Amino acid sequence: MQTIKSWFSLRSGGFRKRKHDNVQPRNRKEERESKVNPSSPVLLSFKSFQKELDAKHDKYERLVKLSRDITIESKRIIFLLHRVTSISDIEELLNESEGKFGDVRLKIQQISQELIGEDTCQFHRAFSPGLQEYVEAISFQHFIRTRSLISLEEINRHLVFAPKKGEAENSEDLALSDSQDGKQKQLLCLQVTPTDYLLGVADLTGELMRMCITSVGNGDIETPFEVSQFLRAIYDGFTYIGNTGPYEVSKKLYTLKQSLGKVEDACYTLTVRGSEIPKHMLADVLSSKTSMSEHEEGI
User: What is the pLDDT of residues 109-129, one digit of tens each?
Assistant: First the structure.
């Protein structure tokens, strides 16, 4: 019995000793921190680094938010443009979409203002999804208007902005001269990269496939064949790039091939069985074929 009591006393004493040992280093640490000189050059340097990193992270989050806004507005424009298959006044629809594109470009202008004096490559991942969605929307509008693919240069031509007063006064970025009055003006510009352009065009193929199926339901038999030729040309271009391009572009190639296959199946059905199927049932037949192909591929 006495041995058990001595053992418990040793255990309790040892526990108290370990607890005391855990408290001592903490007190010593607080004591060391109290002795730190707040005016130390090393401490001041680290505080400046902290402010710089916090400012960078805050700017990154602002760019992510602007990119989300651009993505949302661009998707709304795409939904608006899909009405082209069901209305007669296409020009009015395109003018309405052009007004909405003005609001999107204001968001892009805010991104260009955030990037004044910054390395764009450090923040590119923050706003890249928004630019890709913008490219998809603007290329969709351009196809409806001209039945052709918009170029990267034409997209970037619309992304040059005049800065607000008091901003970019001494910036060396994109200093362009005004040929009319001979004065030098500082212009803001956010250029779409070739990778963002290719990814946006790859996403465009899915919207064209949906427009093809919808147009058949409204009795438009010519649009599917125009879309098929256009998608074939885009697919040939992406195949030419192959695995030599960016990794993200090669991932989009499979989806592009699926969209092309669905449109070509629609054209085949219209050519072979178009006279057998009533026009008001063509869209249902094509949609069911699309669903069956997706199910077989495990999508």
Answer: 999 999 998 888 899 999 999
